[in-house]
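Final report, section 2: Outcomes. Of the targets proposed, DNA-binding XRE family transcriptional regulator is the one most frequently requested by collaborating groups, and we therefore present its record in full.
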Amino acid sequence: MAKETVRKNAMKRRAIRKEKKPVFKVSKPKRGQAKQKQISDQATFVIPDELRDVPYQMVEDGLFQVFENGRIFRHTPRQSSECIVHDSNGYKVVSASVDGTQKHFYVHRLLAQAFIPNPEQKPVVSFKDENRGNISLDNLIWETHEERAIKMYKTGKFDPRRHLETCKQCGSGTRNKSGICSKCEYDNLSKEKRKERISERISSYSDIPIDLCTPSQQRVILLLREGLNGAEVAKKLGVSRQAVDSAVKTARRRVQRLSRLEIEKKDRKKNLNQKPDDMSKIKWLRKLNGLTQQDMAELLDITSSSYSQKEREITPFSVSEAIILADFFDETVESLFN
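The predicted structure is given below as tokens.
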């Protein structure tokens, strides 16, 4: 009985193989002949009887023969056969080898390429009823990525905020790992840069001694030390921006000049601590205090030339002039004119 069962099964398999005739037949090239690349030269594809009246189109450069009812045949230089449809995440797909690489193609997209016009060259094929298994031509439509996103958003299948976290500062949604949205990050960076600029501005004006500046210059510099820029200071004081810049420049020049005079005065005092024998005491005191002959002439209400002659002892000082000079230098008349 076992042998009889094995024999019957073998006969059934042989009968099945005979019934499954190939749709096409490819003859192998004889030795010495060039191998034919085009299947049309070697074999003729026979359309099944049930598909003879069904419209079809060739797509993907002749790789697929797509029938209107959804059946697809794959044609390669070596063979032609009906594609086996697989399910991939709800989509119907077929596969083919392209340049030695196995690739997958969506059935609904092949149908749209074959039978649905696309004059605007839209890139996406969508389902009108959102059912991925319904690949009928009436259910397919060409769309742009934007149109597809809007449609998914309106139907509730896509929520752009589903992966968002709440911003720690403003409470809006963000995908940043830091938990702070891009707008708040930009605002924080701007605030840090502003602080740095204010700090640099304050330090750049801290070297100007206020006590050596005029009142108008002091007002400008004090506002700049508070962190205001030139335009803000000009607006607050009701002057032009050029006036602010000019006040700063003149203040720096004034400080430099007064500092230089102070240094020169110290040097003179250092050099004039001891009166030279060939110099009169009045001249020595005048130079020691950094005064000019014009200053002394104005003090005595005389001309500069008259004072010069009296200091060189060409003409004598009057008694009233001697008293004024003694009071001015905090000396006695006798010590001054000894």
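The longest strand covers residues 91-98.
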